[in-house]
Amino acid sequence: MSKQTITEKLPEELLVELQKYVPGEIIYVPKPKKDYQKWGVNSGGRKKIDYRNTLIKNGFNNGRSIDQLADEYFLSTETIKKIVYSKK
Q1: DSSP letter (8 states) at residue 10
Q2: Do 80 and 56 form a contact (C-beta atoms < 8 A)?
């Protein structure tokens, strides 16, 4: 998020209109919903977690217990259950 003055971004008429509602205040203008991305898409974090979850599911399907997987991946048994029993 870059900081620019509003006079650099908006037409004069819109600036005057905004001053009627929020004079001298800082406001945040969110992106349109269509431009949102899910968590971790840009950083690659989502891919890493999906890969880890695949390994956990494979381990469970190959006979590893939930307790073993929790110890191996440093997650709670409840989290492991959510992963191995999810439809995804």
Answers
A1: S
A2: yes
Q: What is the mean pLDDT of residues 44-70?
A: 96
Ordered DSSP codes for 43-72: TSHHHHHHHHHHHHHHHHHTT--HHHHHHH
Quote the tokens at residue 53.
């979850």
Q: If you average pLDDT over every residue of the chain, what do you get?
A: 91
- Tokens at 61, concatenated: 């399907």
User: How far is the C-alpha of 3 from the C-alpha of 7, rounded, in Å?
Assistant: 12
Return the DSSP state at 41: T
Who wins on pLDDT, 44 or 82?
82
Candidates 41, 70, 72, 39; CA nearest to 84 is: 70
Q: Which two tokens stand for residue 13?
A: 């008429």
Six token digits for residue 17: 């209109």
Q: Is 9 helix (H, G, I), strand (E, B) or coil?
A: helix
